[in-house]
C-alpha cells in the first residue's frame, strides 16, 4: 500500500511526493513501535498453542484488543499536529501542509489497524496465515481505486493529492478490521476457541506480560525505523529533489523488506510453538533455517536493484534529476539488503524465545550510536550528500545483523544445555 501511495503521489507533483515522504518518516517509527508491541502477542499465542492452552490464548487476545485502543490514542496524540516540528526544521510551507493533512487523515484509521493487528497475531500464532494475505490483497485493491478517486479527483470526488492517500488508507484499515473480525467470529477454524469467549475488562496480569515482551520489541523496531526516519528528515537539508529521490529508493527497499519481515513473523511463530512444546532443538533449527531464507530472499532483491535500477525508479516519476539520484541510492540499497534480511530474521527468532530486552539495547547502539552519527558525519559533515547518508544505514544494519544472530546462537546453546530437549 505504501508502494502504491508513493508511486501515485509521484505522479501528482514533486511537492506531494516530498510531503508524503516527510509524513511517512514521522508515521513509520510510531506505527512500528506499536506494531512491535502487538507482535508480542504472536509469540505469546504461539507458545500457548504449543503448550495446549486455548483459554489463555483467548484471554490474551481480548487484552490485546484493549491495549490496541490505548496504542491508537497515543499514536493520534503524537501524529495529529506535526506542523510545529516541521516548521522548525525549515521545510517548505506546501510540503508541511501536505504532510500534516496526510497524517491527520491517517489518524482516523489507527484504532482499526491496531485492532486488526491483534486479530492477525491471533491467527498467525495458530499458524493460520492465509486470511491475512487475502484480506491484505483486498485492501490493496481498495487502496488503488480509492487513491485514483481521491488523489486525482475521479468519480465525482475532488482531487486531494497525496492527502487523498491518507483518507483511503484509513478507509482500508476499517474494512480490513471488520472483515477480519467477522472471520474470527464465524469461521469454523476457531470454534474450539469461541467457547472461551466472554467479555472482560482490562486485566493487568495479562497486559503486563504483553508489555514485558512487547515494549522492548516495539522500541527495537522504532530504533531501526527511527534511524531511517531521521535520515529522511535530514535529507531535507539537500532540497526537494533529494527528499523525493530518497523517498523512492527507501520505498523500494521497504517494499522488498516486507518479504523477510513476513518471514520473521513466521519464524517467531514456529520458534515459539517449538519452545512451547519444550523442543529447543526444533526451535534452533527453525530459527537458523528462517534466517538463511531471509538472506537468500534479499540476495535476489539486491541483484534486481543492481541490474535494473532505472526501470524501477521510472515507475515513480518522470523527473530526470529525481530519477538519477534514486537510481544511485538503489545501488546503496542493494548493499544493505543482505544485512537487513539477516537482522530481521534473527530478531524474529529471538522474539519466538520472548527475548526482546537485550536485542532492543543492541538495536539502540547499532542504529543510534553507530548508524545515525555515521550518516550525519559522511553525508552532512563531509558533504558527500544523500549517498553519504546511506553509508550510515548500511553500517547500522550490518552491526545489528551480526549481534542478533550471535545472540540467538548463544541462547539456543544455553537452552540445549539445560533440561529443554
How would you describe this structure to a colleague?
The protein is mainly alpha-helical. It has one domain (2-416). The protein contains 16 helices and no strands. It has helices at 2-10, 14-51, 54-79, 83-88, 93-107, 110-125, 130-152, 162-186, 191-194, 204-234, 240-276, 280-307, 309-313, 320-352, 357-381, 386-416. Helix 2 (14-51) packs parallel to helix 5 (93-107) and helix 12 (280-307) packs antiparallel against helix 14 (320-352). The longest helix is centred in the N-terminal third of the chain and has 38 residues, at 14-51. The mean pLDDT is 91.
Rg measurement, Å: 21 Å
Write down the overall mean pLDDT: 91
**Strand residue content:** under 5%
Derived from helix and strand composition plus strand pairing, the structural class reads mainly alpha
From the N-terminal CA to the C-terminal CA, the straight-line distance is: 43 Å
How many runs of DSSP E, i.e. beta strands? 0
Helical run tally: 16
Q: How would a crystallographer describe the biggest sheet?
A: none
Categorize the overall geometry.
globular
Low-confidence stretches: none
Task: Sketch the topology as an H/E string, one letter per element.
Answer: HHHHHHHHHHHHHHHH
Q: Name the helicity range.
A: over 70%
Count of discrete domains: 1
Amino acid at each position: 500500500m505504501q508502494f502504491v501511495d508513493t508511486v501515485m503521489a509521484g505522479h501528482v507533483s514533486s511537492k506531494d511526493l516530498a510531503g508524503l515522504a516527510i509524513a511517512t518518516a514521522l508515521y513509520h517509527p510510531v506505527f512500528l513501535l506499536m506494531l512491535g508491541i502487538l507482535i508480542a502477542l504472536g509469540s505469546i499465542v504461539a507458545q500457548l498453542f504449543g503448550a495446549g492452552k486455548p483459554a489463555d490464548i483467548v484471554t490474551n487476545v481480548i487484552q490485546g484488543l484493549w491495549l490496541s485502543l490505548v496504542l491508537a490514542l497515543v499514536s493520534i496524540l503524537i501524529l495529529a499536529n506535526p506542523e510545529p516540528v516541521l516548521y522548525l526544521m525549515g521545510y517548505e510551507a506546501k510540503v508541511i501542509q501536505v504532510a500534516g493533512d496526510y497524517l491527520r487523515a491517517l489518524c482516523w484509521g489507527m484504532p482499526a489497524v491496531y485492532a486488526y493487528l491483534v486479530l492477525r497475531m491471533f491467527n498467525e500464532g495458530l499458524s493460520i496465515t492465509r486470511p491475512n494475505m487475502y484480506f491484505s490483497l483486498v485492501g490493496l485493491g481498495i487502496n488503488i481505486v480509492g487513491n485514483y478517486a481521491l488523489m486525482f479527483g475521479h468519480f465525482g470526488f475532488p482531487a486531494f493529492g497525496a492527502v487523498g492517500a491518507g483518507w483511503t488508507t484509513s478507509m482500508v484499515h476499517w474494512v480490513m478490521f471488520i472483515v477480519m473480525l467477522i472471520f474470527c467470529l464465524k469461521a469454523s477454524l476457531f470454534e474450539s476457541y469461541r467457547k472461551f469467549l466472554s467479555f472482560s475488562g482490562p486485566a493487568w496480569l495479562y497486559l503486563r506480560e504483553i508489555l514485558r515482551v512487547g515494549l522492548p520489541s516495539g522500541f527495537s523496531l522504532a530504533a531501526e525505523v527511527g534511524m531511517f526516519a531521521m535520515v529522511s528528515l535530514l535529507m531535507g537539508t539537500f532540497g526537494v529533489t533529494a527528499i523525493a529521490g530518497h523517498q523512492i529508493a527507501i520505498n523500494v527497499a521497504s517494499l522488498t523488506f516486507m518479504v523477510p519481515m513476513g518471514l520473521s513473523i513466521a519464524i517467531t511463530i514456529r520458534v515459539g510453538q517449538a519452545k512451547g512444546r519444550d523442543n529447543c532443538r526444533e526451535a534452533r533449527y527453525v530459527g537458523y533455517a528462517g534466517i538463511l531464507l531471509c538472506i537468500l530472499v534479499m540476495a535476489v532483491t539486491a541483484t534486481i536493484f543492481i541490474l535494473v535500477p532505472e526501470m524501477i525508479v521510472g515507475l515513480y516519476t518522470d523527473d530526470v534529476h529525481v530519477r538519477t539520484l534514486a537510481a544511485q541510492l538503489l545501488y546503496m540499497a542493494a548493499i544493505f539488503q543482505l544485512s537487513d534480511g539477516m537482522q530481521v530474521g534473527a530478531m524474529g527468532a529471538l522474539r519466538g524465545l520472548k527475548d526482546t530486552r537485550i536485542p532492543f539495547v543492541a538495536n539502540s547502539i547499532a542504529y543510534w550510536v553507530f548508524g545515525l552519527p555515521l550518516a550525519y558525519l559522511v553525508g552532512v559533515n563531509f558533504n558527500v550528500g544523500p549517498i553519504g547518508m546511506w553509508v550510515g544505514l548500511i553500517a547500522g544494519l550490518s552491526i545489528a545483523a551480526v549481534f542478533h544472530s550471535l545472540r540467538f546462537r548463544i541462547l539456543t546453546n544455553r537452552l540445549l544445555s539445560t533440561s529443554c530437549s
